[in-house]
Amino acid sequence: MLADLGVRSVRLLTNNPAKVSGLTNGGVDITTRVPLPAAVTVYNLRYLVTKRDRLGHQIQDLNEAERSLVPPPIPLNARPVRSPVPPEAESA
Question: Which residues of the chain form beta strands (DSSP E)?
């Protein structure tokens, strides 16, 4: 599609190396890759770590110290802990 539009080179804003490869293999010259900053929070840390570790995204400011922000995941089959039944309820 880019070739049909006459696009021969781009300044690419991405953290995804697969986009760089895909465009380069498609004949588009990448003049510059500009990394996109990600604000790391307790809410998105696991998502960003997954993108980096599984997909190879080049995410800046993501290191081991920031991983400690997120508690370990709860297993899918976890059941809530119930409080013990009071003794007076057992005799009823």
Answer: 9-13, 29-34
The H or E element containing residue 54 is helix 45-55
Spatial separation of the C-alpha atoms in residues 66 and 40, rounded to whole Å: 8
Helices and strands: H and E segment counts in the chain:
4, 2
In 3D space, the residue among 67, 71, 15 whose CA is nearest the CA of residue 40 turns out to be 67
* pTM > 0.90: yes or no: no
Backbone angles phi, psi at 9, to 5 degrees: -150, 155
Give the dihedral of Cα atoms 68, 70, 74, 76; nearest 10 deg: -120
pLDDT in tens, 33-69: 999 988 888 788 889 989 999 999 998 777 755 656 6
